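From: lab user (bench 3)
To: helpdesk
Subject: output format question, protein + fructose -6-phosphate

Hello, I'm new to running complex predictions and I'm not sure whether the block I got back is the full result or only part of it. Here's what I submitted:
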Amino acid sequence: MCGIVGYIGKNRAIPVVLSGLKNLEYRGYDSAGIAYVLNNKIKIKKEKGKLDNLVDKVNSDIDSFLAIGHTRWATHGEPSVVNAHPHCVGSITLVHNGIIENYDELREEIDYQAVGETDSEVLAAYIDYLYKQEKDILKVLNKLKSILKGSYAIGLIVNNDDSLYCLRKDSPLIIGLGNGENFIASDVPAILEYTNKYYILDNGEYAKVLKDDVKVYLDGKEVKKKVNTFEFDITSAQKNNYKHFMLKEIHDQREALYNTLKSYEGVVLPDLRKYDGITIVGCGSAYYVGMCVKDDYEKVLNVKVDVEIASEFRYKRVILSKKHLVIVISQSGETADTLASLMKAKTLGVDTLAIVNVVGSSIAREAKEVLYIKAGVEKAVATTKAFTCQLLLLLMLVYNKNNYQKFTDLIKDVEITLAKEEYLSSLAKSIYKYNDVFFLGRLRDYAMCLEGSLKLKEVSYIHSEAYAAGELKHGTISLIEEGTPVIAIITDKEIADKTVSNVKEVKARGAYTIVITNQVVPNDIADVLINIDIEAVYLPIIVIIYLQIIAYYVALERGCDIDKPRNLAKSVTVE
Ligand code: F6R
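Helpdesk reply: Thanks, we reran it on our side. This is the complete output you should expect:
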């Protein structure tokens, strides 16, 4: 969602902030803006649409050494120049991520006539109002914690004050530590060109950032912060020679899965056998990861496993025993609904385990136990490598001891799968002109279909549905026409015949069928038969990689904005 970058230091601030924003483009946004200090005056430029519109309007050679920038993903008020950040009221200029829930009350309290429609503009007005009374910005920032309701990461500059300020609650913010220069950012990739060292601001903390000094405070007292180091090679967050981040990240999977596997070698993983029930919670693809492992978990652990959509779980009446475990899955570690579900599980007094990619993220810090996947930075909005690494880690949790050798074979199978890219790209040519694509499978195969269908629709904008294969004839089969592509997944020996019958049903109605299987199936059910010759516990990882490659090439054929599909954001930090 929205991105924040701020810079203070020895170099020109504008190019640093703009390149930082460029590195956050993947998060999704619909307008962008920058505020910089020049000859003691704060100048602001904002543009609707792509960041390049802003880049074209700002002179990067200006001698400004303090700037804040923002990419906005509209929540309160339409995407427009007036609603874009930074917002300046009186002495205060700020950029804000999150939502101030009581902004209307605050506006009434100070009788502020807003120009735009955003909570962030009111926030600037309110801070200016407090600043006029206190005349000390650090005192004001300290007060805000008890006044503001909602979530916020704020970067702020004050008239006639050569400092950069920031504060946060429930929305991520880091302070990048350079040499003669310091940064603030909502996400690590924004600063990686300049430094890999950073502080993570905790809830309620605020900071004064100078070019060679950073002071972080909580409740009026200075706090000592731990310096974090970004552990991956910086090029892992770059596109390198790939056309899109999505394709690069599909290829990254070999290394990402290897890193995930290796980092837990010899490590004692949490014992899930001590629980009498497990609930797995996530949003979107993270939810589908849970769906993919449900059957394995129930089979191996012999307990009931529920998989819940986080936005539902957080508001649902749930009764959990004291020996229950809630597993939350999140790439970003910042998804609002998943975080709220985790907090709910904590209030219910059960154990919580987070499977997260972004180190130090809110979900990672709030969970009783956290296991990091080692996917590296994922920039394409549609998740690929984080999905398969989450799947791997969850499977390792139940199969670790008996299947370790088999897991190491995974990397070879990933390589074999990636080598089929050209073939799969030609297959995409037979699908991309259709308006609907259906996915069919049963049980775990159905879970894989859900992810395959989501991947396809989000990047290619083709309408797609995943169906539990036996359910199709209860309604949806009416949508099958001559040529409608149907992708079937058949990897479960026990019920393979059943899905084969369902594929025959759609074939008889003219469907163009693509069957992905490790079973022996009749040749005539498939227009395209993709045989995956493995029986391993990690099979879903391989199937998903096939589906990712197909989705990518279908989107490419359709000329879509693959890394930043319309309306989507990478990290969904609002409800
Ligand atoms: C789909 C996708 C989303 C995310 C979902 C959860 O490709 O990326 O469905 O999986 O928004 O995000 P995280 O994992 O960051 O909680």
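A quick orientation on your result: The mean pLDDT is 94. Let us know if anything else is unclear.
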